[in-house]
């Protein structure tokens, strides 16, 4: 099956060139990062972002994951190295996307049909590093059969569900893509880039690592096409065996059932 590479100019992972900041700008950002070492300084920046969003983007929703969600604002400030302007720019896109995508309306019932394929699930236990675990069974992903919109909804619903399981003090989740039985009929470059795009644009620094388990040779060409698009996110990927998953990421009691055989 031929894999089509679809590039759109708005894809944040595909932007080849950004303005290179001047030395002065770089110095200011460095200084800000180093001065934001206490809650008082970070609180000031959170309020600055919050006020700017209220003043310039009053049409954005309020509440959890809205323009006044201080926890969300702080997270995006950290992601943007405490640059207020950069955080506001990324936040407005993320909040608008959540509203347009209907993230808050997703539920077990709304994704039930596609979830029954068993192509993905959130594991009931944390890994040994106390990270929630999102597992994708690649052999059950059939892009020629399944509705891509439903696939995207399922993806976002499970990302939200995994994040809701974060223990206090933990910030990242573990992604596991089980590639056993993967064939050309499962290849979906567009969805794979969508998955990483979601984390890059809307859930920055929430994805700690991605395990590609037992990748067959047929998967390698797809990865070679995808890897350059992911840039720094490609460094989160680790190719490994089932045995590695068993020994390094779970205990006997917490090991996902699909890796027990």
UniProtKB/TrEMBL annotation:
Residues 110-261 form the CRAL-TRIO domain. PANTHER family: SEC14P-LIKE PHOSPHATIDYLINOSITOL TRANSFER FAMILY PROTEIN (PTHR47556). It comes from the Eukaryota. The lineage of its organism: Eukaryota, Viridiplantae, Streptophyta, Embryophyta, Tracheophyta. CDD domains: SEC14. This is CRAL-TRIO domain-containing protein C3H8.02 isoform X1. SMART domains: SEC14 (SM00516). Coiled coil: none annotated.
